[in-house]
């Protein structure tokens, strides 16, 4: 008759601890899809790092990342069910909430990177100097900050529709153009201009801080799948922290994503973008990464109503679900 040998208690404890720290098996992962609002670039480096390094899996999420673009609206993917999560600017999220029950579960970008750019040679040194001048503005919600500022300061500027091209500005067709600090501003320097040639005008400096990239989902997703939402937010925040701590490794990941999507890629430009993303994400160390501040929400919502982009807005508590807290 065989004698059953009981494993030592320490061995059993070791097995249990190992099970706790290892990623969940694929069959136990909860599937979800997140769509980014633009093409692959360092603007989304934290998401790419979290995906490639397995952070989502460690949180029990089998996440598929999709890329947006000029002809793709991330909110429509939420509405149709093609994606459970999406990134959007705060102004976009507040506007879409008017006819789509979406909520913000994490605010990644805390400080607006949207700006107007003028040539120093134009004599423009402040927003007030745009009085009577032509200004290139992107469409839809990208005009909100500029129109709110013009209204606030009583500036009468001629708005000229701006495309993705900066040619009109370079040819002197407008006195100032719209740009993102992490993108178009640096792009102009790659065209041969020096930073000393450019006059940046930040909306944030004028008291119009419109936080940008946040994570959104349908209200029912936040209510019915809170653990999934929290896991996704935790992994994303960890991805951004890793990206800022390991920039060159992260740039390798970003460049690989861009090449796979056949998006023209310059490592120098993406390095600039990653550094600027750190500036606008980590701009307020008194605020927990991922938290949407009530004052920011109220400021953006008021500007949307005042400029006619929105009839009314929902209360902060209905809009923001705080999965990062």
Characteristics of this structure?
three-stranded antiparallel sheet, 325 residues
Would you kindly provide a written description of the structure presented here, covering whatever features stand out?
By secondary structure, the protein is an alpha/beta fold. The chain has 14 helices and 10 strands. It has helices at 9-21, 45-52, 55-58, 74-80, 90-96, 144-153, 167-170, 184-190, 219-224, 226-245, 247-260, 267-281, 294-306, 316-319, and strands spanning 30-35, 61-66, 85-88, 102-107, 114-119, 134-137, 158-161, 176-180, 198-202, 214-218. A 5-stranded mixed β-sheet has the order 2-1-3-10-4, with helices on both faces. Strands 8-5-9 form a 3-stranded antiparallel β-sheet, with no helix packed on it. A two-stranded parallel sheet has the order 6-7. Helix 2 (45-52) crosses helix 10 and helix 10 (226-245) packs across helix 11. The longest helix is centred in the C-terminal third of the chain and has 20 residues, at 226-245. The chain is globular and about 60 Å long. 42% of the residues are buried. The model is unreliable at 1-21 (pLDDT under 50).
Query: How would you sum up the major sheet?
Result: 5 strands, mixed
SSE string: HEHHEHEHEEEHEHEHEEHHHHHH
Q: Beta-strand level of the residues, as a percent range? A: 15-25%
Mean pLDDT: 90
Widest sheet, order of strands: 2-1-3-10-4
Helix content percent band? 40-55%
Q: SS-based structural class?
A: alpha/beta
Low-confidence stretches: 1-21
Determine the number of helices (DSSP H or I, runs of at least 4 residues).
14
Distance between the termini: 58 Å
Global outline: globular
Tally of strands: 10
